[in-house]
Amino acid sequence: MPAAVVGVPEADRLPAATGPKQGIDRYGAMPAGPPWPAGADRVARAGSRPGPGSVSQAVRMQYLTESTGDLDEARSIIARHFYTNVVDTLSGRREWRARFGIAPAGSVTLGDLSFGTDIRMRFGDLGAYHVDVPLAGAVTWRQGTGPARTATTGCAAVFQPVGDTVLDRWSGDCRLLAVKIDREALEKHLAVLLDAPVPGPIRLGPALDLSGAAGASWLSLLRLVAAESSRSGGLLRHPVLGARLRENLMTGLLLAADHPYQEVLHRPQPVLAAPRTVRGVVEVMRADPSRPYTVVELARIAGVSPRALQLGFRRHLGMPPMTYLRDLRLGLVHEQLIKADPARTTVAEIAYRAGFTHSSRFAAAYRRRYDVFPSETLRR
Predict the structure, then answer these.
(1) Cα(57)–Cα(239) distance, integer angstroms
(2) pTM listed for this prediction
(3) CATH number at residue 39
(4) Which of 99, 110, 121, 307 lies in disulfide reach of 270, CB 3.0 to 4.6 Å?
């Protein structure tokens, strides 16, 4: 039985996540055993997969599970969702089974991958930024003319878009989280954070220390997103929350990894957004308040940095942009509740369409503003 939401009437609660719950292991991702129904080698959950673009688009995440003991099929699965590759087994084991959990969503693709036997993989240029985070075992790899390196549970491998890539040994006991980020999306995201153009590829350091504060925090976020990606009916499938978390994955990587823009990224000097810029963003919000905006997307629309937009809203409107958007949505919900027929619709349906995904926070915010629960407005 679902836990009660304290202080919120039943009529004001948003729908709970439905569907079978996936088991989550201590790493915060899919368990090593098969997360799909017995007897089914492949389970695909419905969703959409747009091409490269802004990660903050209204993209609904899908989650695919694949299992195979055939090398050609494994190669095809990796090529379909990640990169063209050549795979060879290194051990003499005849019986092995690869297990893949893959969540493609716009500019970010996540994979929970294991082969169950020692393998070697070869790629050309990846064409995207990529991070491999072992949850168990290790991967020895190299890219371009660089030396051989080993990714472990304490040190992730970071790959550039350009440079022949070889995984010399992916150990049979290795299970890893793979993060593929569209090149253009990450470079544009950095440019927005810096409020300055970013020429050429971002020279990310090849190793990401997962034991330090920044690396550990990014890993925690990655584990959360990976776990929620596999949860049928979870809130990560909602375009608002999903877009923000995927955006945060990119921001966190840029803050945790080594690259030439690190110092300025940690100490930016934002210019205050002008009143005209703030008015322009307000007009955009008012035109489509239910759209799953993020601060980064609004800053991109305004042509300023996220910090500049935040400061501009605080100075000229007395609140951050996302607080303004929440109040705008509350007004929209209030108007629709007044006009709605309680026999034909519910509070949850109206709130969800307006972009609210958390029932208790929505109901509390509505009551603070209108001094009644939304269900009382609907019944009037």
Answers:
(1) 8
(2) 0.65
(3) 2.60.120.10
(4) 307
